[in-house]
Design brief:
heterodimer; A: 631 residues; alpha+beta; Rossmann fold; Immunoglobulin-like; eight-stranded mixed sheet; five-stranded mixed sheet; 22% helix; elongated; B: 295 residues; alpha/beta; 2 domains; six-stranded mixed sheet; two-stranded antiparallel sheet; 9 helices; 10 strands
């Protein structure tokens, strides 16, 4: 124990006036009495009963001197040296990346880091300030330059590890900012060392406190599927090949069971053995029609991170848009459709039998078949002579001056003003709504018939200058996306925890519903434009539903996986490399904190003050009770 | 300057006592009193059956002639009573300053009243002061002496210390004819009183203690850190008085009185605790009679 302000001990000299005052006070008033006989007996009695009675008056003096001693000691600010890296202004960076969930230390690395920081908070001195930063995907300041232990503990208790990797450059930048303005600032990184990214040098002293013990981990680092097109001319269907990558990031050979589930049903299990540092790729040929795949590692010999023992994959279902164009050949239409993203265009001659598995049928100046395919239709310039269930051509008209343009998603960004049409066909289709009307009749109709969407362009492209206009590709793109909305979101296979997903709901969707892997749901009303879903902290399969007037419509799934070797590599680093400098862990005894004791001494002084008050006014009751017992 | 011990008011009270003096006697057997011993006087007391060896001169022949049974005639032995009044005039008795509550004045008035009654009843009265000089008045007999008694008492003042044991043992030796002895004292004698009282009892005295204490001794009006100085010995005692200590003092005082009372009861002595706050004539007329000191 030592003192921060030893000069205050001189105040102990105040004991002298106290003692002097006491001696003055002890000059008693003299009173004549007839006899002191009884009083002497009384004094003898009391002293015999309570030997300390003689000390009674001195007891007050002793108590007062004790109070003085406690107060003087408090003013001298004694402290106990505590082994702590925390003193002065300290910025604590708490790693919240996925590897901190490893269980090689009880109960987990993050909990241990939390305990370490909690102990520091308990050891905070009176002038110490602590800033607490949680280094996650989005680093955030939990508590800023605070000395309030309760607030710090509360902030610490609210911190949770995340499933992804941490943004260390941002976290370190935040820490540098927090350390500015303090002369004695110091940055403490509590982590297992899996720091990634371009790390900036730190402006102040930095200390690295490692967490974790072991690096044993068997991780699924890849799960990908691709459709292999059939060999040219072959008749067999396209097959799906699945690739799973298992890596042993530890130091011992690992054995495990890798099981594969297709759409929730166990499909295959393989026993694998992976040498240290080795990465094994396993492949499967999967049957067609599989939507989701889950791979799971189990029965490992040693594995401290459960988060990377599972992986999921979702099939895109091959090409998203297969379009069949039936017609004599129209270069404008072919080009216009072929350049649409995701569209795979197929051509067919009029009259040829229609294959059924296309996502969109385009009929260009050809008679419609009697039985229409159950897919969206784009009909361009329907001929007059063929009966069909969709529409009836009643004649032609040439007065094509535009009289009305309806509000429609088909006409988004379409400038129709300069388009001229030579001649168009008169079409009667009660299910359809005219989108562009001319004096003689509608030029563009759209509607839904028997559950399928259809768009009718009542003129031949060759009879107008539309293909030469900017409006044409835009119109085609609008028509294609309206007829076949496709996937509502764009989720590449490599989604990591925390990555946002933009969901583009169709025009009819009122809300977007996302079912998370743990069963909870996320609901966001659509207010035009895409919806961003950011709560992808969990790994697993997410199911997207579009809520429309007619009920919830399945819009597909996407998978979030922890395919990050940096997080799966668990072995704690012994030092960190930041910029040009290396941050080492502190040596024992090098960092000494100060735990000040004055609040306890002040509390003790108050306590003794109460005792002194009680002794002075009430006095101990015991001797009186003893006297009464004698009778 | 103290007012006269027996002022006009006190004398009037004595006069009233004289009116009742016929019925008030000092002592259990007192004044023109009958002795317990059956004696040879002419006063008839009782008859009893004759037994062999009895003096035939005391046989009541008249009764024998009438009843033909022998009866011995018991006669009372008559004697006057020696009344010893012992007044403790040590300095501790000269307390407090208030003349109405002063223990010595109270004791002297009491002494005067008792002596007055005894003289009127025809008893032999002697008054002794228990100071070092041990001045003594009497023994005298007869009513004319009452005025002289009062004059003697009026001249008494407090002096010196009293060792009760010593003076009582001394009095037992040379006090004269044993009789009723009334001790008027505050009993505040550091040396104690037991041996002295025992010596008196051994000599055949019938002892009564009038324990005179003033109200401020019974309930001291004191508080705080004090140095108490003994007016008699000059010794001091340092004490800090609070509620607890005063309660202990009160307890101690009552223990002391109880101890005196039990000591007296065990020896057939009369013990009367007297507070000087009580009017002395009431004490004479009521309390002492109730206690059996007067009859």
């Amino acid at each position: 124990m030592a003192f921060l302000a030893p000069l205050a001990l001189l105040l102990g000299l105040l004991a002298v006036p106290i003692i002097v005052l006491y001696m003055l006070r002890l000059r008693r008033r003299e009173v004549l009495v007839s006899s002191t006989l009884l009083w002497r007996k009384l004094l003898r009695d009391r002293e015999a009963n309570a030997p300390w009675q003689r000390l009674r008056r001195n007891l007050l003096l002793i108590l007062q001197l004790l109070i003085l001693a406690a107060l003087v000691l408090a003013l001298a600010r004694p402290y106990l040296p505590t082994p702590s890296v925390v003193s002065g202004s300290v910025v604590v960076l708490l790693d919240a990346s996925a590897s901190m969930q490893a269980t090689d230390v009880e109960p987990s690395r993050f909990e241990q880091a939390r305990e370490i920081v909690d102990e520091w908070i308990g050891n905070l001195g009176g002038d110490d300030r602590m800033t607490l930063i949680l280094a996650g995907r989005l680093p955030r300041v939990l508590a800023s330059a605070s000395n309030d232990r309760e607030a710090l503990r509360e902030a610490l208790a609210a911190a949770q590890p995340e499933a992804g990797s941490a943004d260390w450059p941002a976290a370190l930048a935040l820490a540098s900012g927090a350390a500015q303005g303090f002369s004695d600032a110091r940055i403490v990184v509590v982590s297992d060392g899996g720091l990634t990214g371009e790390l900036p040098p730190l402006p102040v002293e930095a200390v690295y406190v490692p967490v974790g013990a072991s690096g044993e981990n068997l991780a699924l680092l890849a799960l990908a599927a691709r459709r292999i097109a059939p060999a040219s001319g072959g008749e067999q269907e396209a097959t799906t090949q699945l690739l799973a990558g298992v890596a042993n990031l530890g130091a011992e050979t690992q054995r495990a069971l890798l099981s594969l589930e297709l759409d929730g049903t166990l499909y295959d299990s393989r026993r694998i053995e992976v040498a240290p540092g080795e990465r094994r790729n396993l492949t499967w040929e999967l049957p067609a029609g599989v939507e989701t795949v889950a791979a799971r590692l189990s029965e490992q010999s040693a594995d401290y991170l459960p988060a990377d023992d599972q992986a999921w994959a979702v099939f895109e279902g091959g090409t998203s848009n297969r379009v069949l164009l039936v017609g004599e050949g129209n270069r404008f239409l072919e080009q216009g459709l072929a350049v649409l993203p995701g569209v795979e265009l197929f051509l067919a001659s009029p009259g040829a039998p229609l294959e059924a598995d296309y996502d969109l049928y385009v009929f260009d100046s050809t008679p419609l078949p009697e039985s229409l395919p159950a897919a969206p239709l784009l009909v361009v310039n329907p001929p007059a002579d063929a009966p069909n269930p969709l529409l009836e051509v009643t004649g032609v008209f040439s007065n094509t001056a535009v009289t009305g343009v309806a509000e429609s998603p088909l006409l988004q960004f379409v400038d129709w003003s300069g388009v001229s049409v030579r001649v168009a066909r008169q079409v009667s289709a009660p299910w359809a709504r005219p989108v562009i009307s001319a004096e003689g009749g509608p030029l563009l109709l759209a509607g839904e018939q028997e559950g399928r969407r259809a768009v009718v362009l009542t003129f031949a492209l060759g009879d107008s200058d539309l293909p030469l206009r900017i409006a044409f590709p835009v119109l085609l793109a609008n028509i294609a996306s309206w007829l076949n909305p496709g996937r509502a979101f764009d989720a590449p296979t490599g989604l990591s925890p925390g990555d946002p997903v933009a969901i583009t709901p169709g025009p009819d969707a009122a809300a977007v519903l996302v079912e998370k892997p743990d069963g909870s749901t996320w609901l966001q009303p659509v207010e035009g434009g895409p919806v961003v879903f950011g709560e992808t902290e969990q790994t697993g399969l997410y199911h997207v539903l579009l809520r429309t007037r007619g009920g919830d419509r399945d819009a597909g799934r996407f998978a979030v996986n922890l395919f990050q070797p940096g997080e799966s590599r668990l072995l704690p680093a012994s030092s960190l490399r930041l910029g040009q400098s290396t941050v080492e862990q502190p040596a024992d005894g090098e960092n000494v904190g100060q735990r000040e004791l004055w609040p306890w001494l002040a509390a003790l002084a108050v306590l003794i003050l109460f005792v002194e008050w009680w002794v002075h006014f009430r006095g101990p009751r015991l001797p009186a009770i003893d006297l009464r017992r004698k009778t | 300057m103290m007012p006269a011990l027996f002022d006009e008011a006190a004398l009037r009270k004595l006069e009233r006592l004289t009116l009742v003096a016929d019925s008030v006697r000092v002592g259990v057997m007192k004044g023109e009193r009958r002795s317990r011993k059956r004696g040879t006087s002419i006063e008839f007391a009782d008859y009893r059956d004759y037994s062999r060896g009895d003096d035939l001169r005391r046989l009541d022949w008249n009764v024998y002639a009438r009843l033909e049974r022998p009866f011995i005639k018991l006669l009372e032995e008559e004697e006057d009573l020696a009344v010893h009044l012992l007044v403790d005039n040590s300095r501790s008795m000269d307390w407090p300053d208030d003349p109405e509550q002063n223990k010595l004045r109270y004791a002297l008035r009491l002494c005067g009243a008792l002596g007055y009654i005894a003289l009127h009843a025809g008893d032999q009265v002697s008054v002794t002061l228990l100071d070092r000089e041990r001045r003594r008045w009497g023994p005298y007999r007869g009513r004319p002496n009452s005025l002289r008694l009062l004059q003697f008492l009026d001249a008494v003042s407090a002096a010196g210390e009293t060792n009760l044991n010593a003076v009582l043992q001394d009095y037992a030796l040379r006090g004269g004819r044993p009789g009723l002895l009334l001790l008027l004292s505050d009993m505040l004698s550091p040396a104690g009183y037991r041996e002295g009282l025992n010596a008196l009892l051994a000599r055949g005295y019938e002892v009564g203690i009038l324990h005179v204490l003033s109200p401020d001794e019974l309930q001291p009006p004191l508080a705080g850190d004090l140095k108490l100085v003994d007016v008699e010995t000059g010794e001091d005692a340092e004490i800090s008085l609070d509620g607890t200590t005063l309660a202990a003092y009160d307890q101690r005082l009552r223990d002391w009185q109880a101890e005196l009372a039990s000591f007296s009861a065990a020896r057939a002595m009369h013990y009367v605790p007297v507070s000087t706050g009580t009017p002395w004539e009431r004490l004479v007329l009521r309390t002492l009679r109730a206690e059996g000191v007067l009859r």
